[in-house]
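Preliminary data (for renewal application), DP6 complex.
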Amino acid sequence: MSAECDQPIYMATVSAPTNIACIKYWGKASIEYNTPINSSVSVTLDQSDLCAMTTASASLSYTEDKLWLNGIEETPNKRFYACLNQIRAMAGDKVDPTSGKVIVSSEQWKQMKVHVSSYNTFPTAAGLASSAAGYAALVSAFKELFHAKESFPGEFTTIARQGSGSACRSLYGGFVAWRKGSSENGWKNSLAEQVCDEKHWPEIRALILVVSDQKKTTSSTTGMSNSVSTSKLLQHRAEHIVDGRMSEIEKAFHDKDFPTFAKLTMADSNQFHATCLDTYPPIFYMNDVSKQIIHLIHCYNEYSGGIRAGYTFDAGPNAVIYTLEKYSLEVAALMLYWFPSKDMKEYLTCSSNKDIFKKLESFSLDPELLKATEAIWSLTHEQNQTHVKHVYFTRSGPGPLVLGEEKALIDTKTGNNSYHR
Ligand code: DP6
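Predicted structure:
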């Protein structure tokens, strides 16, 4: 049993979303500031399906900074301290709302050590942007705890990107761009901006097929460093392709033009994986199941006579398929037909639609569509059973949310981790 702290413990608990890029960030311009060679843009996903939960606490009783990830104690790293130190430098006074008295001054925060506990509601480091949600939650929890204020819009995103580049886009909901910025003035303009909020295009759906829940073999940081030093295709992409795609996809999102949005998303995923193959030695993030999913989506679009679904893959084999609400049952039914599971309740997560199991059960796929997709298939249903581990049927959602004390992951008396898997 740990002893109770004799000094007050201050804490803040938040949840933060993950995001999936449509135009990918791949390659760093500055390793020190963690800035990208090209701009990127992503959809922030609904936190009721996937999120990182984090409690940050501070107390004069703490003797060292401590961090627990998914219930296990870890040593805080450089990225953690980049976030902690910069947000603490922006701290404000904690004031009693009734008396107006200062409880903790901005200076006093600096004398306190911190204890942080965080967990993900989805597989860590499997190409599902867990670091994006994790660092967005860390920055948001510190911001809340220290009553920090931005000196310019987007300043918090410049700190989150130093935790993990893609994390800066998780500080906002909806459709979010990370502008690459420039080196003068310490890269302060390499920041995230909301293009459209989550209410702008509520019909957008994302189906995530978790093909592997294992840690990826080449981390994004190592992978992109090798790509920057060896891939000429990556250089060409950053200099000549991405800016045009950014303008086109932002316009498509504003105009709710799904075919353009999905086509650019697929093209950019394919080009990102082409730069991985162009890296020396090459990096393979997609596997044969990922490729089957790609064929399946192209076949489905061809059968539909238009673009109804678009896939994208990050640094791992898992697929994210964007579609619209009106096609989403058909797309999900098609995926579940080819990647079935005996236990649907365990297999499929869809917090926003409780009737999903009934709806999918009663949905009948057009035999013509099944015939068309069969042609690209060499596997039987039995063989496919184990290829997809889990399916998330989700949508776009808001940025980080501040939660009540009842959700805290740190014990309010001892200051120790209280989250256990
Ligand atoms: C393929 O943000 O994980 O998901 O900045 O080194 O932490 P670091 O990289 P990270 O890279 C994400 C790469 C990507 C594309 C994207 O999200 O834009």
